[in-house]
Amino acid sequence: MENNLAGELRLGHLFQVAGLAENDVMVIRHTLNTGGLETRAHAMGPNLLPYTREQGHNNKVGRMPPPIWLNFLASSGRRARFITAFENHGEVPGEETETLRFFDLRPSSAFSAMADRLVIEWTADTVNWAKTGKTASLMPVVQIADPQTEPFPGFDSLLISYDELQAVVVDDRYRQWQTALRSVQGIYLISDTKTGKLYVGKADGAERVLGRWTEYARNGHGGNVALRELAGADASHARHFQFSILRVFAPSATSMQVDAAEAHFKRALLSRQTGHNRN
Fold first, then answer.
1. Per residue in 23-48, pLDDT tens?
2. From the CB of residue 78, how many other CB atoms can be counted at a distance below 10 Å?
3. What domains does the chain contain, in order, with CATH numbers?
4. For the CA atoms of the chain, what is the radius of gyration?
5. Which residue in 80, 79, 104, 106 sits closest to 90, CA to CA?
6. pTM, rounded to two decimals
7. Which residues pair with 101 in a beta bridge?
């Protein structure tokens, strides 16, 4: 490392600890976008590898990219959070097209202890989403978070964005949330921050709130007619949704009780007349 950087933790220091030479590593900064990795769940899940192995001719990964690819997800500003690593076993010539080439990528254990904990600061030219060698090695380490769980705020204080919902339903840090949401039936509210329209929904029976919200995290509309129409017009419209809980019920509550509460909130919030509810 250069002398004027002494005392500052850089990504290259972590390469050394992991036994990786800086020329053997490529660092990739992924962003969420329509037609690519549309949600955090896509980036954190099985969609990442097939998305990453598909590269354009002569793009930023170069003709002979390194054997280890460290994948980060862009967060606020120039910050990026580590997701996972892949081993590059070379280009697959038989899959090449006129515009694309494909790499034989396989999951790697490199930096596995840093998954969703390591945050770095990207270079000022964020449009350059792949970095190697000294440039990657000198990136500052902003944070290495403790692998602690996120405390559940309580049903009355729960208010999350769609992007946060992606993490809540799958991430181990939200185990307390998952347990709480799995244990109750309830009436929930989806607020469309783009249009101001509201949707009142219910989660009853064995599905509970966690099961119902997992559907929204998966497809953005949960099967609801009006929300499905929004998704048809704009596949990424769900990014404008905000989720909260209006009322919870014990698992023993009857469907009649839950239905009555849902109807009440639809009337009170005018979600049929001015919102996204159709019935």
1. 999 999 999 887 788 888 788 888 89
2. 17
3. 3-144 (no CATH), 155-268 (3.40.1440)
4. 22
5. 104
6. 0.58
7. 55
